[in-house]
Each structure stands twice: as structure tokens, then as C-alpha cells.
Amino acid sequence: MSQSSFNGIPEAVYDDPGLDEYKNNPLVSCLPPLYSVKEVISKLRGKPHFDTSEIQLDGRTRVHAIARILRSFFQPLNHHLELEIKISLMLRQGYLGRNPADGSYYSHLQNGFQRVIQEDIEAYAFGDVDSTATSLSLFGCSGCGKTEALKRVLKMYRQAIHHPEYNITQLTYLRLDCPADGDLVELCLSFFSAVDKKLGTRYSVTHGKKKLGPTRLMGHMAQVANIHALGLLIIDEVQNLNEARSGGAEKMHNFFVSLVNIIGVPVIQVGTHRASKFFSRTFRNARRISGFGSLLWDRLPKDTQWNILLEKLWQYQWLQKAEPITEELEETMYDLTQGVMDIVIKLFALAQVRAIVTGAERITPLLLQRVYKDELKPVHPMLAALRSGRADLIEKYDDLMMPEIEANMLSMVASLEEEIEQKPEPVRGSDKVKKLLALMEQMEIPLDIAIPMVDRVVAEYPDLPITALVHKVTEYQVRKPNLESKPNKIKRSEWINLPSGDVRRIYAEVEDDKVYEGLKKRGLVFDLKALYAKES
Fold first, then answer.
1. Is the pLDDT of residue 523 over 50?
2. Global pTM exceeds 0.70
3. Among 54, 108, 155, 382, which residue's CB has the most CB atoms within a 10 Å radius?
4. Do 395 and 469 lie in a common domain?
């Protein structure tokens, strides 16, 4: 592979694109191969670094490890694979009508010059130039993972490639965020800034002058897209476009249609349900703007995809008493998050931090409910609307405002540090503590008694060898002869740390008014009705 570059941009390397229609087109031949489903899943998947030895680290350090989930975890699901194949098709099909090798690219370029000169977005020099570009709309509620999925798909492509033989610096894709309450002028200006940032050009100075007005700016934007053979333009947060400031729905509609039908650049519009209403109204008569239709992403349904997501996510627990996912945990997670991807990840991370801070060291349904109640208050109205299933209520919460999760994690860590200052504890995962606990087990001392006993002895005599510590434990037993006979002295706040079969732990895991149901669900309440039916 060639190692040369042009201003830091890698030089094109041409490979067999796999299909006859893509051959002899340098803009396609330099793209990655057409990946199989298995390869796509592998490239999209995000796996946080996880080392089981880190489970024995102190709580404050483990919180840093848990933060990896927020940055790195991504489980590809069916709708992500659908997005990937559509982007793959749009990108390659869009280049069929802009091939430098057969001259169609230069015809588009000449037409672009005419649009700039005549200040008419529909002007042309060659009338026989065809567009093979299409468009796609991706809509859904905030937090469903639209932007993150797009970023991961786009990472599969080199964004900029230099073709020395044709003197073209190709931009395979460009992603823009619509400014809040923005208009088409601001969108064009952000386009020039994004191109400059990637290619080191000065289009913001030479082409991006606000005083040029929307018509001339759109012409310049279209021509820059032509010059750099832009393969795909992604316009995110399109609900931010101000219809009134942009000259009305018709003008916005004409601009996006022109990019696809006339300029030949494939476009993906990304936004919330508010945006979907506008585009479905204005694009319904466009010939190519809806060529790939619309993808509507909302909460995940409670199906096998949901199960796969949680099973993969549950593997990343930095808790000393971590337990596998259960049906009850799955039900609780879905009820609290309504399948909104972003909230699922954040609730899971915050629950782990809470489990460390409280000393529970495991995730339970009650812990999830408490974290949701305390830490995710900003999303309660939106999720309540989703639970209701009423479209009129859901529409009121078009933009889901997530809380600052890092701030929430830090506040919980602060409480952890206060606890550490008040009561220092040894690391229970050390070899010394493990050996002592093993000896306690051989002496048939219950764990709920052995753990605090060992903790106290090791805390008081951290430098003593094992043999001396055994003697100290014996002395401690002598000083507390009735310790074993009073296991019920465990504080109620510590019941959550008892073994899973202990009735006190079950009591701690359920709401106060649901104790009976919790015991019955676990088979601890005798079913008199069943017995009566059997005897009769």
C-alpha cells in the first residue's frame, strides 16, 4: 500500500470494488471492500477494556473503569446493520454519475461553475448530466443512538483521499450539526468550516461570506461539494432549522432537492420527530429525495434484540458480587428506560457506582429503581409519555435532555470518599483476607459474622503475618463469645449484602408494600389454594 500523502491526506489505493458497475471508477475503487454481515458487526461493535483483576481495586478507581462503558460500549443490532448497508449503497451509487475516468465528474464541475456565475442553483452547462444520488431520512427520539451509530458506520471509511492522477482530493463524507434555531445561511457557513477543518482549505474566507446571501452561498456550497467529489452529506439535528428564517418550507425543500437531484450529492437528514413532520410534508413529491425512504428509530422493542443488548452489557460489571442478568432485572430495566439506548447505558453505569458506594456490590431491581428516581429526574416526563403510548404526550417531549451523567457519578464518588474517611476498610480481595475468610469457613463461622470479624482484625493489625492474625481472630472470638449466636444484629442497611437466599436480603430488594409478592415469587410463601385444589 502506498505510504505517500498530500498535505497529510492519504493517497488513493485502488482495489477491485467487486461489481462491474463500480470498476474503472476511481472514486469507488478507493473505498473499502463490500463487507459481510459478520465483518460489519465486528467493525461496529464497541468493547470497553475489561480486566477481572480490576474488580478488586478500591471503589474510587473502579468508578473510572465503569466510565469506559459510556465511551466505548456499542452492540450492533439489526437496525444498525440496515443503516450500514444503506450508507454503503448511497455512497457507491452516488459516484456512478460522477466518474473522473469517463468525464461525468467534470461535466458536474462545469455545471457548478454556471450556477455560481448565474446565481441560480438550477443553472447548467451540460443538460445531459444525470444524478445517481439518493437521499435518506433518519428520525427518532433523542437518545435512541442515531448520531453514535452514524459515527461508527462512517469510521469504516477514510474521510479524505487524494487522487494525484486526477488532481482531486475526495471527501467521502461530511457530517454537519445544524446550529440551534439556524437557517440555510448558517448551514452553508458551517459546511465551509467543516471542509476547511478536514482539508486545510480556506473556503470560509473565499466562499463563506455571510453577506453573499443564501442563494449565492448555496451555489458556492454546491460547487465545493463538486470539486471535492463529496460522497455523502449528513445533516444532523435538522429539527434545529428555523423554517421562517430559512425563507419558508418551500425554499428549504428546494435546497435539499437540488443537492440530490441536480448537484448529485447523496444526503442524509437526521433529526427528531419534529423534523420528520416537516420533511414528510415537503418531500412527498420529490423524485429522488426519498429514494431510500425513512428510517424511524425509537425505543427498542422488548424482543430478542433487547435481550442480546442486556446480555452483552451485563458482562461489564466491576462489582465484587456481580450476578448474571435475570428476567426480573430485564423487566425492571425496560420499565425504567423504555428501551431508549442512551438511558439504558447510563442507568447501568450509574447503578454500578451506586452499588459500590452503598457497599451492596451487586445490581438489584430495587437499586435500579432508586438510581432512576434519584439520578435521572430530567427524563422522567419523557419516559412517562413513552410508557403511556399516547402520541399526543410523546410529541410534547421531542428533545430528550439527558442529565450530566459525569457530574452524577462524581457526586456519588464524593459520598464514597466521605465514607472511606469515616471508616477505612481493607481490600477484601487481598490474599491475606481471602486466607483468613477460608479459615473462618473451615471453622463453620457464617460469612455475615466472619467478614466483619476479619475486616476488624486486619484493619487493627495490617502488618501481622497470617499465623499471628489467626491468633488475633481467636482472641476476638473469646472476647465476643456470643457473636455467632446473634446473626440478627446485622444492620438493616446491610441486609442487601446477605446471600441471595436470605429472607432479609429479599426484604431489602423489594419495595415495602411488595414484600409479600416478593416472597411469594421466590417460592417462600406456601400456596394453600394449590394444596386445597389437590386434596379436593
1. yes
2. yes
3. 108
4. no
